[in-house]
Write a structure and sequence with these properties.
This protein is α/β, with parallel strands linked by helices and 481 residues long. Helix content is 46%, strand content 8%. Strand 4 (393-397), helix 17 and strand 5 form a beta-alpha-beta unit. Helix 9 packs across helix 11, helix 14 (304-322) runs antiparallel to helix 15 (330-339) and helix 16 (367-380) packs across helix 17 (399-411).
């Protein structure tokens, strides 16, 4: 018996069970009371006499026990599917040790990770779902794109089914549902979508998703305030929203424009230690060497040999890209760009990290509004009076922002003796390069279009535009950029 049970005999256990199940004596007549007990998981096996109903019910009971075991494994914190949307525990519930949701967890979400998790910790559940959807599928572990289908990939559907079943069992197992709700908010989905999806276990409720975003924003802001060693560049601009009243009531009858200001903190990389210290920068300004700057100095700084070489290579690049006979030389021209004219190249492995900051209701056009907006943005990145105010802080924006920052510094210059923060001496305003290019483009279009001579003067932009049937910009001073 021991050899037979170990599979060392002439006949295997599976052969015996298969013969028992398919033997005609094991079957029960349709009119028998036990005919309704086939694959019955609710009946006591001791009460079933016939072999086929007993074996089928035993198999269902065994599979059910395995499914429950896999479900118990997946709802454990060790599975990594439990997240808290808020630090506060819901009323009436006991405190939980589940981790608070973070942007790192949301950004690291991937279907591949969930597929590997479910195949490893719930193989029986995964096998049954895949066989239910694709009865002829041989390898249920194959997740290559060509095997998943185009419109309804079976592996992706299985992920959602298992995640929704776990969410129904335990509302704390909400990793996929929370990420899905956050994506709905990012797409400005209507709140009814959140209600329906939450009801069907597709996602968490709108309130839970919003609480998660609030907690993640607080955590990110706290990290920014406690990381003065990371140099940051602020890029700011105004935001506008046209508010239309949907219900007319007393005191709110007209549409209004809601004005605010937003900014993004950009982490600076490869900054030499002490390069942004304000003390040496102030000493260099006191030398007043810019008074000695002349046009000849600027012209001498231009590397004309380098510019001529770049122009020649760009001309060659156009030839090898658009002349079929010269296509084989394209790799050689690209190599020349990498070896001959490369100058101060940005690290090709550089990954710029940006941190959107909280908006405010200030008007950046006014001097007071710009000052209050900067104070708010500085507080979000940990710059306050007497705290992290000994370094230069770059702040960039469009023409309006650049002018407003200059006006703020001009009005507060009398407070220079009270510190760099109150006088905003630490602020170094920068005009965004895209705005500079746009202004230059508008100057060229307005000055070289040749209004009135589009059909007679080939040297004008208007003549060239008419030749290629290109429409005239609606505003030559502000063309599309």
């Amino acid at each position: 018996v021991s050899s037979f049970l170990k599979g060392m005999g002439e006949h295997k256990v599976a052969e015996i069970v298969d013969l028992m199940y398919n033997n005609h004596y094991s079957k029960v007549p349709p009119c028998s009371l036990e005919s309704g007990l086939m694959f019955s998981g609710a009946s006591d096996l001791g009460d079933i006499n016939a072999a086929q109903p007993a074996l089928s019910s035993w198999a269902i009971s065994l599979v059910t026990s395995r499914i429950i075991k896999e479900s118990n494994i997946l709802v454990l914190p060790e599975a990594g599917l439990r997240l808290r949307a808020s630090k506060k525990s819901p009323s009436g519930s006991s405190p939980t040790q589940d981790p608070l949701v973070t942007w790192e967890q949301v950004n690291s979400f991937s279907f591949e990770k969930l597929i590997a998790l479910f195949q490893c910790r719930a193989p029986a559940t995964w096998f049954l779902l895949m066989k239910f959807m694709r009865p002829r599928l041989q390898d249920v572990t194959n997740t290559t794109p060509h095997s998943t289908g185009t419109y309804r990939p079976k592996h992706i559907v299985s992920i959602f089914i298992i995640s929704e079943l776990l969410f129904v069992r335990n509302k704390s197992v909400n990793y996929l549902q929370l990420c899905r709700a956050i994506s709905h908010i990012s797409m400005k989905a209507h709140q009814s979508i959140h209600r329906i999806d939450s009801r069907l276990a597709h996602s968490v409720s709108y309130g839970s998703a919003r609480n998660a975003l609030v907690e993640m924003a607080k955590a990110k802001q706290s990290w920014l305030q406690q990381s003065p060693h990371i140099e940051k560049w602020l890029c700011m601009d105004n935001v506008q929203y046209h508010f239309k009243p949907h219900e007319h009531y007393i005191g709110q009858l007209e549409s209004r424009m809601v004005i605010g200001c937003n900014a993004t903190a950009i982490e600076l990389q490869d900054v030499i230690e002490g390069a942004l210290d304000i003390a040496p920068w102030r000493a260099r300004r006191a030398e007043n060497r810019r008074s000695e700057l002349t046009l000849d100095n600027l012209l001498d700084d231009i590397d004309r040999v380098h510019l001529e070489l770049i122009a020649e290579l760009h001309f060659l690049q156009g030839l090898v890209e658009f002349v079929p006979a010269l296509t084989p030389y394209h790799p050689l021209v690209e190599k020349l760009f990498d070896t001959e004219v490369k100058k101060h190249q940005i690290n090709p492995n550089c990954h710029t990290v940006v941190h959107p900051l909280g908006t405010n209701a200030e008007n950046e056009v006014s001097t007071t509004g710009m000052k209050n907006a900067l104070v708010d943005f500085f507080s979000q990145i940990g710059i306050e009076e007497g705290k992290n105010d000994d370094k230069i802080q770059f702040v960039s924006g469009d023409g309006k922002s650049y002018e407003a920052i200059g006006n703020v510094k001009k009005h507060l210059s009398e407070l220079a003796d009270n510190g760099t923060y109150k006088s905003f001496e630490l602020v170094l305003e920068v005009l965004e390069i895209w705005h500079t290019k746009w202004t230059e483009l508008g100057r060229i279009c307005h000055g070289k279009w040749g209004t009135g001579f589009e059909t007679t003067d080939p040297s004008t932009l208007g003549y060239l535009a008419k030749t290629i049937n290109s429409p005239t910009p609606s505003d030559l001073k502000k063309p599309d950029f």
